[in-house]
Amino acid sequence: MAKSAKDPKKSAPDALINKKAKFNFELSEFFEAGIVLTGSEVKSLRDKKGNLTDCFAKVRNGEIFLENFQIPPYVNGGYANHPEIRPRKLLLNRKEIQRIDRAIREKGLVLIATKSYFKNQKLVKVEVALGKPKKLFDKRDDIQKRESKIEVERALKERQRK
Fold first, then answer.
1. By its UniProt entry, which PANTHER family does this protein fall under (predicted)?
2. Which helix (H) or strand (E) holds 161?
C-alpha cells in the first residue's frame, strides 16, 4: 500500500515542533495523542500560532495533562477567547497512560511534547515522548558530533568541486 502525500509523521508546514526537546532530552518512546481544545484554540493553531518550547505533561488521577502549551488568543475570538496557558487534557488509551505513569515513577523519565500537528486536516494531534534529561557533557558531545559531521560534509563538497 502506497503512503499518502501527507504523512503526519513527517513535519508538515502547519506542524509546531519543539526543537529543544532533542537537545535537552534523550527521547526513547513516542506516543500520538489527541488533545482537548476549545474552538478558538483550534483556530489559533490553524493560523500557525503556538509554542511547545517549555511544554511537558503530567499524570493526574489516571489522566495526562499538557502543561505550558502556549496558544495565543485567537484574533477574532471576541469575549469567549481562551487563556493562553492552561492545562490541556491529552487523550490516550488507559494502557498507554499506565505504561507512561509507570515509566515516570520507576525510571525517572519525563513526558515531553515534541510536535503538534493536524491529522487529515481535521484533528489536532500532539506527539509526546518519554525522555531522560541529558547531562551537560552529553549536550557537549552532541554539539561536537554535529560540528564534526558538518566539517566532513564541507570537506567532501570541496573535494567534489576540484
1. SSRA-BINDING PROTEIN, TMRNA-BINDING COMPONENT OF TRANS-TRANSLATION TAGGING COMPLEX
2. helix 136-161
